Amino acid sequence: MKYEMILKQPVIVAERFDLRPLRVSDAGLIGLNAGDERVARFTRSIPHPLPPGATEGMIARALSEDRAEDIWAIDGTKAGGSEVMGLIRLERVDAGQSEISYWVVPAYWNTGVASAAVEALLAANPHSARTIFASVFQDNAASARVLTNCGFQYLGDAEAYSVARGSKVPTWTYSKKMI
Questions:
Q1: Along the 179 residues of the chain, how does pLDDT read in single tens digits?
Q2: Domains present along the chain, CATH in parentheses
Q3: CA distance 52 to 76
Q4: Paired strand residues for 92
Q5: pTM value?
């Protein structure tokens, strides 16, 4: 896997797409797709409806030098896909530990994009994490399969607040030892 650093964040080259840092010009596509209720309801942080300025604020935070998480666009242009097929994040949660999360545009659901993006990010391990955690809502079995297919082990049940749903939602929590 080859990658280069941009804003102290690597571009990760995969077969079907590149994982690249966000650009200000991504706001339209991210807003269009994150504003889709089908996407928002499976995330903790995306509100629905998506308020004006929310996407631009998220991009500004992603481009900040003092950010706590790195966010990549899943950019499929090299294979004729969209510039934003989804987003994938890696947040530093403790020394040697990060948490991964992702969403994929509904047009790319069940095409292997999420699994390939998670695999590429794990292979690059840009945070040099020893352990990577993830959680998914229990009504999102497809995302749970992505994690288990990528080698994550089930840790237990919990719950997390979903802004789009306006309530706590049961989750499954996973981890993967990297080193």
A1: 334 444 589 999 999 999 999 999 999 999 999 999 999 999 999 999 999 999 999 999 999 988 989 999 999 999 999 999 999 999 999 999 999 999 999 999 999 999 999 999 999 999 999 999 999 999 999 999 999 999 999 999 999 999 999 999 999 999 999 97
A2: 3-129 (3.40.630.30)
A3: 26
A4: 98
A5: 0.94
